[in-house]
């Protein structure tokens, strides 16, 4: 059962600590920087890609004092003892902490995030299977097709005008409800106007051996691009 409280934390210009200097640490650092956090990285070995990021580097092992004045901690090391110490030190000070791939040593999880303008959707699997979370994020991306951010921007502009124009809460609510419906209908219409590209294999050349699905795609196509090997009966 998932009893997590979904929240979005404001960490802009807040000091955050990442312990670890490998690829996983790089991914977590990138997420923090995307939220405009001030990131400090502590690790005895730090990969080159991290050194190129706008972060503070401390090239040594973790020390308890590293979490002083820190708002959020992420441990991305392969040392179980270090990870446990980071978790305990953070818990004692009431600092949110995430030990990568160790749900029992996390006071919060970093979900898979889809980001488009001011739209930000995070998916959590309660630490059970982050890979499935990434699949769901990519599915959301495919559904949105980059249209949701612009729709929200337009709605935000309209909302400001409504707030200044209408007086009662119910009036504002009803007008915004209709505007959101109009935007969603518009997104659906744009999506319908977008074409699809299907690749159909013609098999060994015999037109009778093409699949029923492939034949249907050819029959319903508006445009067909083919090479010289296709049998003329198929087109």
Write the layout of secondary structure elements.
Elements: E1 15-19, H1 23-34, E2 38-42, H2 48-51, E3 56-58, E4 72-75, H3 80-92, E5 97-99, E6 112-116, E7 119-123, H4 130-144, H5 148-165, H6 169-193, H7 212-220
Parallel strand pairs: 1-2, 1-4, 2-3, 4-5
Antiparallel strand pairs: 6-7
Helix pairs in contact: 5-6
How does this structure look, described?
With 235 residues, the protein is α/β, with parallel strands linked by helices. It has three domains: 15-110, NAD(P)-binding Rossmann-like Domain (Rossmann fold); 148-193; 195-235, no CATH class. It has seven helices and seven strands; from the N terminus they run βαβαββαβββαααα. Helix 3 (80-92) links the parallel strand 4 (72-75) and strand 5. The model has no long low-confidence stretch (mean pLDDT 89). GO terms for molecular function: ferrochelatase activity; methyltransferase activity; precorrin-2 dehydrogenase activity. Residues 196-229 form the Tetrapyrrole methylase domain.
């Amino acid at each position: 059962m998932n009893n997590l409280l979904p929240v979005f934390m404001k960490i802009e210009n807040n000091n955050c600590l990442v312990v670890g200097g490998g690829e996983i640490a790089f991914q977590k650092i990138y997420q923090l920087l995307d939220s405009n956090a001030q990131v400090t990285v502590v690790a005895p070995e730090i990969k080159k890609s991290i050194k190129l990021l706008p972060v503070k580097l401390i090239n040594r092992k973790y020390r308890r004092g590293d979490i002083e004045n820190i708002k959020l901690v992420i441990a991305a090391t392969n040392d179980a003892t270090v990870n446990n110490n980071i978790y305990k030190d953070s818990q004692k000070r009431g600092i949110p902490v995430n030990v990568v791939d160790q749900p029992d040593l996390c006071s919060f999880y970093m979900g898979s995030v889809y980001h488009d303008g001011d739209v930000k959707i995070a998916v959590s699997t309660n630490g059970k299977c982050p890979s499935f979370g990434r699949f769901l994020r990519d599915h959301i991306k495919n559904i949105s097709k980059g249209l949701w951010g612009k729709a929200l921007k337009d709605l935000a502009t309209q909302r400001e005008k409504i707030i200044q124009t209408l007086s009662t809460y119910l009036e504002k609510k009803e007008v915004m409800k209709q505007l959101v419906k109009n935007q969603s209908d518009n997104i659906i219409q744009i999506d319908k106007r977008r074409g699809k590209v299907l690749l159909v294999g013609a098999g060994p050349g015999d037109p009778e051996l093409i699949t029923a699905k492939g034949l249907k795609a050819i029959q319903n196509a508006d445009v067909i691009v083919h090479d010289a090997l296709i049998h003329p009966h198929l087109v």
